[in-house]
Amino acid sequence: MYSAAAICRSTHLPIPQEGRIITSDDVFGHLPDIRCINGGIDAAPAPPLDGAGQCAGLPGVLSEAGGRLPLHPKTRRSRAARYFGLPDKEISSGAVVMRWPAIYNKGSKIREEAHPVAKHLDKFTQPFRDSPIPFALAEILTNGSGEMVDLVCRFLNPAAAALLGLSPEEVQGRRLSQLGSERALEQLAPMQAVAFSGSSASFPYVTAGGQTLTVTCYQVMYGTVACLLDPRSGAGAQSGALPELLPGADLELNREGLRCLACSRQLCQLTQWSRRALLDRGGRAFSALVAPADWPALLQKLLDAAREKRGVDHDFRLLRRDGGAVWVNLRAEILSTRQGATVFRGVFLDIDRLRREGQDLQAALSRRETALRDAETLLDRMPVGLCLLRRRPDGGVELLRANQVLSRLLGLSPAALARRLAEDPGSGLPTGEREELLAAAVRSRECGLPLRRACRVCLGGGRELCLSLHMSWVEQPDGSWLAYIACADISQEAAAQAEHQIRSRMYDLLLEHTSLLTLDYDPARDLAQIQRHSTSGRRTSRTVSGYLKSLLTASYLHPEDRRRLAGAVRRAITHPGTVSCTYRADYEDTGWRRYQVSWMSLFDEAGNVYRLLGKAEDVTGRRAAAEHFRQLAARHRRQARACLASARLDLTAGQTLDAKAASRHLLRTLFDRTAGACLQQMASALPEAEERARFQALFSPDALSDAFAEGVFQFSMDHWISTGKGGPSWVRIEAEMAENPDTLHLEVFFQLWDRSFRRLQSTLLDTLTRQDYELVLTADARSGACRAYGPSAGRLPENATCRSLAAWYFQQLPPSHQRTALRKALSLEAVLSQLEAVPSVELVLPAPEGAPYHLRCSPLEGMPGVLLVTCRRLPAGTPSPAP
Questions:
Q1: pLDDT, mean of residues 847-873
Q2: Which residues are in the PAS domain (predicted)?
Q3: What's the pLDDT tens digit per position in 398-421?
Q4: pLDDT over 90 for what percent of the chain?
Q5: Which end of the chain offers a freer environment for a tag, N or C, measured as fewer CB atoms within 10 Å?
Q6: Collapsing DSSP states into helix, strand and coil, what is residue 75?
Q7: Choice between 215 and 864, residue whose per-residue pLDDT is larger
Q8: What's the rounded mean pLDDT across residues 251-258?
Q9: What's the start-to-end Cα distance of the chain, in Å?
Q10: Closest to 639 (Cα-Cα) out of 734, 512, 507, 556
Q11: Does 559 share its domain with 581?
């Protein structure tokens, strides 16, 4: 047997499942119904030929041998050949091709050949081809028992086709079961006796459209009947054939569903189906031609119309051959109702374009309504106050629309706001600005230009708002004007702008007399905008193209600093952050001055440097002041040991930074933790009231700050002070002020010097007048600090010590053993050691040139810890000391 898959492949059908019925429409449109049995094909209605020679059908199980069917043992090969129209050689004694009237299967190739009976029927059909007499030829199909099971239309002339509402081309060679219901076959039962007996008969027949015909039939060949159709006058026919100019169809509604009985050519064009294909699909179930979503509603409409005996007017989508759907309007009337079936004749009007346009309009309307709602929502949720005013031709003003933000800004309800604007649109404006703003609004309307203005609005309770007003006028055909107004609260922006103006003026004052450069550099274009502020208050601006390259050859930059400045700019671009460096430049032809430049990088959204902002400040004076402060602090630390007391005070912070004294008594008496208390105690240590008042007037914190502001940095005062055990001493207090470059605080350095040596100086001067000394000096026994007197005092350095004087002397002598011995003898430690045993130490020192020197060291009477050193040249001829 041929498998079901083989048959389906040859006919381009899906492979059927076990037990599924494959109708004739699925195969070739005119085959008997086939049932899948165990993978084979069974033409169930066609039993094998019997021995009596009834050629009504053959068994329908295909064999593997060439697609042939087994014959009944008593069936003659010639009768089977005549039935199928095949040569005898195509039919074996054991198999025959399945009974397909016009198609047979030879091997795996399917081909179509003309039925051999057709040429014998031409002599019967030729006279009726163009005849107005309705004429038809039908072949009777029976089962093995001789009972009629179906009819095949062999011929139908145009007159009969018009009477039946069918097309000759579409029904030619088709079975009645494919065109009508089983009840139609029952009405044609008398044709069975005529086809096989040679007699004639006449009987009534009701068409699908409800028209009653008289059918007169007679035999033309064995199993073939000729029919003459005659419509009965006065019968219940409601209409004739379907009009071909309209897309119409006859639909039968019964318990099994809805099926199409007939259709017009226009309906075929509308659906792009041929009439035969349309009837094949709609003849079984009209739902195959209706969109699944629209089928329930259509069926319910037809059921309601059949029950209520009325027409149908319904829109649905009709499926087309290309898979698309077209909207149609079905308008159907009932043709007939019999035996539970209702036949409708309907017209399918193409409303696809109107329907789609309607849907587009509906969608557009829906979008417009949505946009209107969104606009209303946006209007109320905008962070600015919006309103629409109408100025009538008579000059009156009315409020058409205002959002909630405007009501909240003005602190009024919508009704109060509308009433206030209608009465006086300028209410709430200050008196001085009201007339000006209203006049500006009139000029804006007359010129057709929008109005932009910042105005103040007075609210209740003394509150005031600053609003940004934007107004636009639109003229209307009736002579009125619409004013679209938007206002926002800019009170904070106005305050910020005022603050910005104040700060801008303050910055101008700060930069008025400064030597400063501001730079704005664009790395992408290598373009710099430079603005220079001079100490004279003059500003100059210039734009430098190719700035980075120009730094290497700029004449106003010091040659040694050009590459360093260009490198700093590159680092600021490649290593974002704040880059600072110093360089020397001469911008005003006043000589080289030192500048300190700082760059700050600005970044874009991608994290790249797109701008550099720089500031170059003249720090020449600042660096000099910093160097001076450093030297002052170093000198203060060095001299702290030689003076009675020293202190470093921070007047800005009010703190004592450092304090030292020669004794604990002085430390407790003079100094405290805070600068003010320290100065107060220093003043209290003075024994005389007049001196205390003079000290406070000169060294109070306010007096020192005022003096520094006036450019006075150094002060001194001589006075008596109690040093503890030895009674009051004549001292000098010295103070020097400077600004700390790191903290920018004002600091003052105090030193208290013992001035009692004046009395010693008078005694020494008396001695010097009596004796001729080359050198007279005093030396501190602890520190070795020396002070010279007499003519040699000007040649001795201020910070000279015993060690430095000895080193200078021995540099004048040539190297010798004597110089080595003298170096040990002249050390301060050796002299002090000898003075413990003897009252004085005397030495003869060789001179680099001339007579030797006589050096004498002894303690100074009345001055403990102080040595008196005298040196005089011996008479000429005195021999130098032996080595």
A1: 83
A2: 155-174
A3: 888 888 888 888 888 888 888 888
A4: 10
A5: C
A6: coil
A7: 215
A8: 89
A9: 152
A10: 734
A11: yes
Return the closest-CA partner of residue 317 out of 344, 339, 348, 345: 348
Q: Looking at the predicted structure, is the pLDDT value of residue 117 above 80? A: no
Q: Is residue 594 part of a domain?
A: yes
The CATH number assigned to the domain holding 555 equals: 3.30.450.20
Distance of CA 769 to the CA centre of its chain: 99
pLDDT for 51 beyond 60: no
Residues 710 and 765 in one domain: no
Where is the domain boundary, 754, 774, 790? 754
Residue 349 lies in a domain: no
Domain final residue, candidates 695, 728, 754: 754
- 34 φ, ψ (degrees, to nearest 5): -120, 140
Q: What is the pLDDT of residue 303?
A: 93
Same domain? For 129 and 203 the reply is: yes
Residue 367: predicted pLDDT: 92
Strands (E), 422-489: 451-458, 464-475, 481-489
Residue-wise pLDDT for 723-761, tens only, equals 666 567 788 888 999 988 888 899 999 988 887 765 555
Please say whether the beta carbons of 70 and 63 come within 8 A: yes
Distance (Å, whole) CA 851 – CA 875: 7
pLDDT of residue 241: 63
* Cα–Cα dist 283/565, whole Å: 97
Q: Tell me, what amino acid is at 54?
A: Q
**Using N-to-C axis directions, what is the helix angle for 689-699 and 675-684, rounded to 10°?**
160
Task: For residue range 864-882, list pLDDT tens digits in order.
Answer: 788 888 888 888 766 655 5
Q: Which domain holds residue 179?
A: 117-241
- Nearest CA among 165, 159, 161 for reference residue 261: 165
Same domain for 613 and 533: yes
Examine the domain organization and report whether 139 and 39 are in the same domain: no
Smallest Cα–Cα separation from 17: which of 36, 40, 44?
Answer: 36
**Banded pLDDT at 766 (limits 50, 70, 90):** low
Closest listed residue to residue 71, CA positions, set 358, 55, 728: 55
Please report whether residue 301 resides in a domain.
no
- Lowest-pLDDT range, 183-187, 240-244, 313-317? 240-244
Whether 124 and 235 map to the same domain: the answer is yes
Residue 521 lies in a domain: yes
* Average pLDDT for 563-581: 83
pLDDT of residue 38 exceeding 50, the answer is no
Q: Which of 265, 266, 258, 262 is nearest to 249 (CA)?
A: 262
Helix (H, G, I), strand (E, B) or coil at 857: strand
Concatenated DSSP letters for 768-817?
Answer: HHHS--SEEEEEETTT-BEEEEGGGGGTS-TT-BHHHHHHHHHHHSPS-H
78, pLDDT greater than 70 = no
CA distance 856 to 876: 19
Location of structure tokens 């605080």: 745
How large is the C-alpha radius of gyration of the chain?
66
Q: Where are the beta strands (DSSP E) in 552-666?
A: 578-585, 593-603, 609-618, 645-650, 655-661
Q: What percentage of the chain exceeds 70 in pLDDT?
A: 80
Burial class (CB in 10 A: 0-12, 13-18, 19+), 725: exposed
β-strand partners of 249 = 263, 346
How are beta strands 96-97 and 224-231 bridged, if at all? unpaired
Query: From its phi and psi, is residue 234 left (phi > 0), alpha (psi between -120 and 50) or beta?
Result: left
Claim to verify: residue 231 and residue 130 sit in the same structural domain: yes
Task: For residue 198, give the nearest of 215, 216, 221 by alpha carbon.
Answer: 221
Verify that 830 and 867 share a domain, yes or no.
yes
Number of domains in the chain: 6
Domain CATH code at residue 836: 3.30.450
- Mean pLDDT lowest among 283-287, 655-659, 861-865: 861-865
Q: Which two tokens stand for residue 324?
A: 């698309």
* CA atoms within a 13 Å half-sphere pointing along the CA-CB vector of 713: 10
